[in-house]
Amino acid sequence: MILRIQDVLKRVSAMNRELEELNQLRKRIPRERSYTDGLEVAIDKQVNDLLNRKIAYEELELENVPAELLVQLQKVDMATASRMQSNRLQVSALEPSASEQKVLDFLRDMPKVELHLHMEACISSQTLAGMLKRNQVDYSQSELEKLYEFNNLQEFIKLFLFILDSIKTPDDFELIFQNLREYLESNNIRYAEVFLAPSRMIQNGLDFNEIAWTLDRLANQCEREGGPVVRYLIDVSRTFGLENASRNLQRVLDAKATNIIGIGLGGAELMGPAHEFGPVFEQARAAGLRAVAHSGEDDGPWSIRDTVEILKAERIGHGTSAIQDPDLLQLLKEKRIPIEICLTSNIFTGKYVRRAKDHPVRRYYDEGLVCTVNTDDPEIFNVTLTDEYWKLYKEVNFRISELVDMNRMGVFASFHPRPAELWQGFDQEIKQLRSQYQV
C-alpha cells in the first residue's frame, strides 16, 4: 500500500478532531452518577482505538520527503511526526567534541537532585548475580547479561520481574542500597526520592516491615557518613487493583519508617486508571504522606487530568501525553505541578515519542511548566542523570542556564524540608563550577 504524505496529513487531522471531540465529551460527564463509570470506560476505549490507529502511521517510513511537508505534519501532530522514520532526519551523535567535553564535565560535577528513580532498577547485573549466589539460585552470568540486553518493552518487563523475584530476604537490600549509593555519588546527586514497589516482594513472602526498617537504617547510615540523602516513596501499584493499593498504604502507615515520606502510583497505567485510586490518595494525604503518580506515560492526557483533579498528586511522573491537551498544559502551569521528565525511558517505551529532539520537554519548559530531570531506571536503561542532562543539551537544544534552572526546579519540586537552603548551597557550587569550566 502506497500513501502520499498528503493522505497521512488528512487522516491524522481527522483522527485528531475525533480525539478532541471525545476528550471534550469526557469532561462533560457528570461525576457521581450511576452511569459515569460506564460512559468513561466507553469513551476511553474509543480514544485508545483511535490512538492505536495512529500508531500505524507512526511506523511508516518516509523517503525523500520535502522539508516543508514534514514541518506541516509536525504542525498537525508533533507526536506522530516524531515517530515517523525519514531518511532526511538523522539523530546527532552524542559523543562530545573536545570543546564540548567541559560542558559534560560541568554537568557531571553539578550538584543535583533526582526525584523519579526506581530502586529495583539500580541493581547491576553483577549485584544481581551476587544476590542469586547468596540465595543459592543457579543462574549463569552470561544468562544475566542477556537479560539486561533487552530490545523491547516485553523483555524489559521480563527483566524487571526477574529482579523483583530475585530479592529473597531483607538483607538483599544491603547490596541493592550500595548500588544505589554508588550511582548517586558518581553523578553528584545529593538528594534523591526513590521508588520501591513492594507488591511482588510481599507476594513472594517478604515482610514489609523488615524491608522498611532495613531501608530506613541504610538511609540513616548513608546520611551520617556524609553520603546522599535518600528518601523513599512506596509504590501502591495500580497493577494489582485498589484493594492491594489500600493494603500497601496501610503497610506504610504501620511501619512508621522515618525515611518513607510518601506513596506513588506506578504499575501498568492502562490496567489501573488513576481515578480508581482516589480513596487511597485521600487517606495518604490525611495521614501526612506526600503523593505522586506515574501518569501520561502509556495513556492519554485524561489520565493526567484525573491524577491532578482526583488524586491531587503533587508531581506527575512522565506526563508525556499532556502535549495533546493545551487546556491541561495551562492547568499544570497554573497549579505549578512539576513533571518528572524521564527522557531516555520515554524514548524506549515509545508510546508518545521516539527521538530525544521531539520530546515535549522543550515545549513544556518554554511554556513555563515546572520540569525536573530524572532517569527512571538507570541500570536497566544504561543511563545516568549526567547522561540525561547531556542529551537535553546536545539533542534538545537546552542551554546551560536552562539546565541549571531545571536542576533548581527539581530542588523546589522535591519534598526536602528546606529546599531553599539546599538550593542556596547548590547555587554557590554551580557558580564556581561554571567559572571553573567556563560554561
- From the N-terminal CA to the C-terminal CA, the straight-line distance is 51 Å
Which fold name fills CATH's third level, the topology of the largest domain? TIM Barrel
Strand order of the largest sheet: 3-4-5-6-7-8-9-10
Q: How is the biggest beta sheet arranged?
A: 8 strands, parallel
Beta strand %: 5-15%
CATH architecture of the largest domain: Alpha-Beta Barrel
Rounded mean pLDDT is 88
Tell me the radius of gyration. 22 Å
Count of alpha/pi helices: 21
In CATH, what is the homologous superfamily of the largest domain? Metal-dependent hydrolases
The geometry reads as globular
| Helix content bin | 55-70%
What is the CATH first-level class name of the largest domain? Alpha Beta
Low-pLDDT windows of residues: 74-93
Integer tally of domains: 2
What structural class do the secondary elements suggest? alpha/beta
Please report the total strand number as a whole number. 10
Quaternary structure classification: single chain
Looking at this protein, list some descriptive labels:
439 residues; alpha/beta; TIM Barrel; 2 domains; two-stranded parallel ribbon; 10 strands
Summarize this entry quickly.
The chain is an alpha/beta fold.
Please render the helix and strand layout as text.
Blueprint: H1 5-27, H2 36-58, E1 61-62, H3 67-76, H4 78-83, E2 85-86, H5 101-109, E3 112-118, H6 125-134, H7 141-148, H8 153-166, H9 172-186, E4 189-196, H10 199-203, H11 208-224, E5 229-235, H12 241-255, E6 260-265, H13 278-286, E7 290-295, H14 301-309, E8 315-318, H15 326-335, E9 339-341, H16 343-349, H17 361-366, E10 371-373, H18 378-381, H19 385-395, H20 400-413, H21 419-437
